[in-house]
Please model this.
Amino acid sequence: MAAVVVIMADFAAWSRALRTRIETALDRVLPAGTLAPERLHAAMRYAALGGGKRIRPLLAFAAGEAVGVPAERVEPAACAVELIHVYSLTHDDLPCMDDDDLRRGKPTCHVQFDEATAMLVGDALQSLAFEVLAMADGEPETRVEMLRLLARAAGSRGMAGGQAVDLAATGRNLDLAELEFMHIHKTGALIEAAVLLGALSGGPLAASARAGLEHYARCVGLAFQVMDDVLDAETDTATLGKTAGKDAAQGKATYLTLMSARDARAYAGELVEDALAAVAPFAAAGGHLADIARFIVERRY
Amino acid sequence: MAAVVVIMADFAAWSRALRTRIETALDRVLPAGTLAPERLHAAMRYAALGGGKRIRPLLAFAAGEAVGVPAERVEPAACAVELIHVYSLTHDDLPCMDDDDLRRGKPTCHVQFDEATAMLVGDALQSLAFEVLAMADGEPETRVEMLRLLARAAGSRGMAGGQAVDLAATGRNLDLAELEFMHIHKTGALIEAAVLLGALSGGPLAASARAGLEHYARCVGLAFQVMDDVLDAETDTATLGKTAGKDAAQGKATYLTLMSARDARAYAGELVEDALAAVAPFAAAGGHLADIARFIVERRY
Model:
């Protein structure tokens, strides 16, 4: 127990330091709010800065660390995956999608600005993600592969496709296979990209290392989603920083419509064990990758 | 006069052949409508296939030709710029933007499907553009530069930024400098990217060739916009394939709020002369690049 507390204290300090690093990096890559078109740039900064768990950048940094890539070389990949994530949140909150007015404890982008601006914010953040990744130093062949991976993860066979499945599923009963198909696309694809891009920031990967990281990412992605559903049902809006209990209210399938909260927690625990096994061969048994996996089942928001 | 007719007949055959080529290429890179999520993929195909002037792909092919790159090597770049263009049209037509129900002679994507799907169509087409460009063969360092150029042209300091300026300008009187700032971003950035990406599909460019192509693209981009405003005012909806006279009705600034149609045509003519001069040093005096410039001032829709 004492060992766990020490690991978590180290993890808390590590993630705090890297959250500061990613905030600084995003602040640098986002155009200044004084640059024309000012309102768009201000809205992009509003959406992207000053909040969020930054799970995807943390995964990128931790994956880089697992294969010996220093944080400064991982930064462009960490920014790119977070920009894709923020773009998807901004679009997902729009009235024609989830119609949400609270995100990261603040009014959503279209509430604070307007719908057209929020749509352009998402569009431009997606472009910026690719621009940031393409501008980074590094061996060009791997860089092209990273750009391809990110594009695939964001698109219709990845995150955007998962959103479409989610839309189509509202009000329907999904079985576990259908629910996981949705999550593997909607959140899993970008989480996998975060891990792979972090590791590839140092150059090409051995096939075995890549396979281990992919398996880790898939398990962690699902565990994250299972716990999201548990927390969404059990936690209040103020603690979550977004509207609680909304999925259930909208008739969306969640893990808790298929199993008890106790079974869902147990399932997340199994996925995390699987993730830990996949990164056990890396230095320090996966180091902060392992810590992130553990954090996912222990987090409160 | 006979020489002009011959050139235009050759241009018509050339552009018809390449429109068929780009249609086939887009059909191949777009996921099948039978692949999950089916509705999203069907909507992406609906938005991207079967219509359009394909000006940007034609510019990419012509620029490739001007520096000796065969059409098959230009295809990924031609697809990528058209996918970005179609994504922007799909989002631009949404109710929170221009709220248009007719595009390329068909109901717009959100009318045919629904708003949420149309938003995801645009999002996923943007990702697909980068994926297609990243998957192409070719020297990786130039490929990374092409991806960076496309991202920059699509984003807040390019096309998406131009859309934001356009939104902010509705109902205001713009002077010529402000109007051109908007167009240089909203349409010019992607036209320039089409030309540069076409030429870069063969590898790095000499600085003088690149400068000539950039100048050509800027002139052609503005001439295209000037003529768009003239045609929008003078042509009926059926011929245009989109709602005519809409910009003026929405209180948007156009060239015709700043000058007569006669002066606008003359201005477009001057820009085209400038564009022709910029590509004169290339083989066959710019070949089809020159033809496209001439076509822009002579087109009827």
